[in-house]
Amino acid sequence: MSDHYERVKIELQQMKEVESEAAADVEQLSPASVSSVPTDVSFTARRDLSRSSINGRSRSKSRSKADGYERQVNAKQLSDLTQQKSDYAQGQSRVSNEPDLTIKGTARLLKGKTAANGHVESCQRQTEGKCEDHGKEDGKCKVAAKKRRTVTVDTSKAKTSLEALKMSIRQLKWKEFPMGRRTACDIYWHGVSFHDNENIVSGQVNKFPGMIEMLRKINLSRAVRTMQELFPEEYNFYPRSWILPEEYQLFSTQIRLLKDNDATLKPTFIVKPDSGSQGDGIYLIRDPADLRAISGSQIKQAVVQEYIQKPLLIDKLKFDIRLYVLVRSLEPLEIYIAKEGLSRFCTEPYQEPSQKNLSHVFMHLTNYSLNVHSGNFVHSDSCSTGSKRTFSSVLYRLASKGVDIKKVWSDIIALVIKTVIALVPELKVYYQADIPPGKPGPTCFQILGFDILLMKNLKPVLLEVNANPSMRIEHEQEVSPGVFEYVPSPVDEEVKVGVIRDTLRLMDPAQRKQHVTSNTGGGSPEEAIVVETGSDEKEGLADSLPSLCLKQVFPKYTKQFNYLRVVERIAVIFLRFLGVKGTMRLGPTGFRTFIRRVISSCSSAVRAWNCKLSNSSFSMASVDILYIDITRRWAGMLPDSREAGKRPTNHDAIYSTSSLPRPTHNQKAVKQPPIKDTLATIHHSAFPLAYSRMCLQAFIEAFFYLAARRSKALPLREQVLLLLEVCEGALEGQSHSEKPRPHRSHTTTNPASSQSSAPTTFSSPALTRRRHRPLQLSAKANTEN
Ligand code: ADP
């Protein structure tokens, strides 16, 4: 124990030192920004330069990489205390730099982080504690451990997450199959997508079908926008965005009108290619006309977004936050957030955008992959200094300045839950298409990388979500001129190994079977910050490992966020009417059936309640016109289309992140005319029904239209909720007369089809589907960042 006290003493000393350091003026430049290199080349040029120089380097794998891994916790170390002590001594300098502190009510949050990566000393403490606590029961524990079947993991497709994954598996004493396995594994770890391994019929895969597609910039923007239409205040954490090229005119006109109204307005916009990552192809503009000047008449598929001009700075540097989020299941929806994340710093002091600095990539873009090539980039062995740090070290810094970090965390948790809620409807459609109900298949989970920016007023803003966040725990370093080696990155290891290991722990098949989500109500996101993960330990997950670094936030906060799951309810109706055709799109017959069975055959009570859609003014001919019009517009969202996807958006109240004024009533008039106007003019004979079928987004648009038609005077959200009630009521009535489906075990049940805790009252049909993915797929998609 004397070692332990010695360590506490050192930590306290460190605490004081870090505290006084943090109290120093935050506006002082860090070493990262002391020397400055000219960065006034264009983004693309700079990137190219960086790339070519890297490509030309001779790369040699560093010995120290292997040495670094030796320092990590593994199964052997866990049972070998002598070894642990020497390991601890080696790791001392790193650990002592971490602000494992008790400050301003953040104690437990910050305390939790040291456990994130199963550092030797924390494992040791826990192991020792267990021995003391359990005493005589030790023998029993060993018997129980022996009885437990070893969990098997197929790591053959893990790609760049392999090293962190291997370490995690070692810590868990699970069995790895690096070359795959002829018989089934419990867990399949894929580096890119659900389809990395085909023909998996059981177990669990660490990717959801469709996640890559959904997290491409345009699709994410669309999903959030749909939610903004219904809940503008709740979804104001996403910057105002326009989809290019189809909304170029809208973008151009809106900004012109805004500038006409206020000549002092100097907005900046960031243009992000749809399938780009790592800052690739991103540039800033100050006027819509610049877009034309840069890309000519052929504007590529991209999102143009309001640039957040006043980010929070530390040491005068812009930074962003990478948070790891585990979607453990879609049905029921389960979300976990890693208590520790990364903060990635720019390497040139920030200035608000001006024509002069617009192309200063190291000033405006926080991407690690870009800044690592700046002469100012600081690799650090400490988690609280350098150009890549732990998020808790940043929080600590902010707390020492009096910032209410509990509020910051609670806002971030809300942002994460709301974003996942926006993605779920479409993900359920993908899921059902890929893992048809009634057929054996795996279940899925996925670690997502949320990129979040804090504004100067501490409001978190969502930048993007990565389907394949980099899980590399090493970085390239120039050890001598021109010689680059991969060396372990302590900060990455600290965060990422914990995230992977604890994801595995949560997906342990034995645990999953037992898992009953007991916490489905009270509390607030704010409480999540201060409540430790004791529940996980109660569940018996911990064994000799540190407490979980992943914190459940959903269903924990169901009460606060479930009301947002409106589009998901529409998706459930959509899935129900997809029929047996096995597509992700609804055919005209399915749409007609939906109208006939749900809309037109409202119960008499509903009809009495002014169900206008059931009267003759909405004939089947109108239904077909509606179907064709909307389907054609959404089918037009192919790369060279100019006409698709212009559903009017409620821009009011969406943009509290925005420095731009909200559009006035007149400005809104530049949007597309409502559907009913186009219905009158459309000539459909030229458009064969078979040309395209209705995707979920188009169905949602049709649903909104139908809802608005029923109850014109109400706000959209009310309209939609009323129609949903009618639909669900009608379907519930019908499903009572249908035979109940047999319930299947968790490991083979399609979450999209099981509606046990979905925010609706009826289940989708047990239909067998053939695999078909009509939405555009991109090979590159959302690659590692
Ligand atoms: P990528 O997938 O290419 O990394 P991101 O959307 O993450 O694209 O943007 C790259 C970087 O640009 C972010 O890390 C952030 O620093 C900056 N950035 C992106 N969007 C905005 C914005 N709306 N306002 C300010 N900075 C932004």
Automatic annotation (TrEMBL):
**Key words of the record:** ATP-binding, Ligase, Nucleotide-binding
Bias kind Low complexity: ranges: 747-767
- Signal peptide from the UniProt entry: none
Q: Which domain of life is it from?
A: Eukaryota
Tell me if Lipid biosynthesis is a UniProt keyword of this record: no
Polar residues bias (residue ranges): 30-42, 74-96, 655-669
Which intervals carry biased composition (Basic and acidic residues)? 641-650
What residue spans carry the region label Disordered? 19-98, 641-669, 733-785
Question: Matching InterPro entries, A to Z?
Answer: TTL/TTLL_fam
Q: Could you tell me which SUPFAM superfamilies the record lists for this protein?
A: Glutathione synthetase ATP-binding domain-like (SSF56059)
Keyword Nucleotide-binding belongs to the record: yes
Q: What is this protein called?
A: Tubulin polyglutamylase TTLL11
